[in-house]
């Protein structure tokens, strides 16, 4: 069985990703209510009772809102790095010590037949990290919540079969939008989020000749639109010589509707 996944929700209001192999079923982040996560899983015909583990990237509420309730309801172990555990104190509710595991940044762990490789990102959290998920030669790379894509990150995720990749904002919408200047400065800074154009430029340095899927993720509800993000990333990549639709497939994600369960 190939590695399969669904982006259950992605955006500034909540993020969660489901990943499965033949033997294991994982959640990456749980930034929705427990009820919404359960409903999204049922839409892709996955019973929440069959989940095996929950990985947390960082402590922001749009990534952990439903983590505590999901862990208690389904007796899930949670994996996060030490600084993130400390930052989440008081936000997850009561958990058994047997459910709390430390997964250090820049390390690899194995859950069943899935290897998960963590890597640090530049974002305004305690110690944010994201993941490469490996199974039988397949690689899914989750790259969101970062102010810029460093050469180190590029080296870590380059050549993935599928990318779940941030395209947070349109630069003009953000500049002209209603946010106060200090919030705009945070988003535009090295500890913020990357723009649609930045996503296209970075992806152009990550994708080789093999067939590749890209899911555009973590779109701002106030400073972006699906069609605009898709068009900007597509045009940016085509300006670099890529032909979207010919071996390179570009998909949208949604803040409330899960993507179809797909192979990496």
Automatic annotation (TrEMBL):
It holds the Pfam family Lactamase_B_2. The lineage of its organism: Bacteria, Bacillati, Bacillota, Bacilli, Bacillales. SUPFAM superfamilies: Metallo-hydrolase/oxidoreductase. This is Phosphoribosyl 1,2-cyclic phosphodiesterase. Residues 13-191 form the Metallo-beta-lactamase domain. It comes from the Bacteria. Gene3D superfamilies: Ribonuclease Z/Hydroxyacylglutathione hydrolase-like (3.60.15.10). It comes from Texcoconibacillus texcoconensis. InterPro entries: Metallo-B-lactamas (IPR001279), RibonucZ/Hydroxyglut_hydro (IPR036866), WalJ/YycJ-like (IPR052533).
